[in-house]
């Protein structure tokens, strides 16, 4: 498929990752006692979210065939799941920062509709399409955005359950638990294929795209959802009976995500220092900022839910790293926009 050089035509399906990254850094700032930073990023995130919706709708109207082609492409299609996660994370911001239950509920419904539409269109298209890429050319860490999208709905459902009365509290907690379990199963399926691709096919620096950090980010948001379910168990008898299972799997998710961090750092050093791959702005880098912020937030929540005070240093450390990464990526975006307006650069597809 030929991509036009216009900014609209070349808009990445994964650009809602910017909302995900900004939202999780904002929530992290709120949890760690930085309300001014949290509110500032919340306001920015609202503007980004609605602007991106305008751009995506305009792209669908202006380039419908291109939009449909992206939706069924093995590498670009999973990027649309950022729309689900962005809606859920923004809904979580509305609930935590503004205590706006109605706004959170609207975004929760938007996320569910998008999740249903994308899950059963993208993966159905991958199944029935006649021309398919080989495994090494058709899968990367971006596939795990489907896991992140699923777990983001589990997180928002658990947060809404804490604000709801019976019987909705019971139903929301059950729905959150179901999505949490489904997201975990989906991670096992996909990660098996990704790890197989890692170890049994040639690997080039260009193959190590930023979404590979979602390997860790998917586990981090699963940890957050499990921690919230563990906290909610106090008001949900059926969760109380499952609490040991929930806690065990939450620690399992956190440990798996933590294992990935040194591995991803080593691969990053190999890519940018040893292989000297150029470091320049790409919208996919928002997919690397999000896992760092989510790891900080999920570790903070797990430590509180389980009394792990010895983990207190990690949330602050990774929040600082996430904030620096967010600022660097945002500066890269501004630089790209300035060059685009000045006519010295074409928007990268």
Describe this structure in words.
- There is one protein chain.
- This protein has 349 residues and is an all-alpha fold.
- The protein has one domain (17-341): Voltage-dependent anion channel (Glycosyltransferase), CATH 1.50.10.
- It has twelve helices and no strands.
- Helix 4 packs antiparallel against helix 5 (101-128).
- The longest helix has 38 residues, at 237-274.
Short note summarizing the structure:
The chain has 12 helices and no strands. It is mainly α and about 350 residues long.
Q: What are the defining features of this structure?
A:
Glycosyltransferase; 349 residues; globular; mainly alpha; 12 helices
Quaternary state of this entry equals single chain
> Structural class from helices and strands?
mainly alpha
Number of domains: 1
Measured between the Cα atoms of the first and last residue, the distance is 11 Å
Helix proportion of residues, in percent?
Answer: over 70%
Which residue ranges are poorly predicted, with pLDDT under 50 across at least 5 consecutive positions?
none
Superfamily (CATH H level) name = Voltage-dependent anion channel
Helix-strand sequence = HHHHHHHHHHHH
Mean pLDDT figure:
90
Biggest pleated sheet? none
Strands, count: 0
Task: From the 3D structure, determine the CATH topology.
Answer: Glycosyltransferase
Q: SSE layout and pairings?
A:
Elements lengths: L16 H15 L3 H28 L1 H8 L10 H17 L2 H28 L6 H4 L6 H19 L4 H33 L13 H19 L4 H38 L11 H21 L6 H29 L8
Helix pairs in contact: 1-2, 1-4, 1-11, 1-12, 2-3, 2-4, 4-5, 4-7, 5-7, 7-8, 7-9, 8-9, 9-10, 9-11, 10-11, 11-12
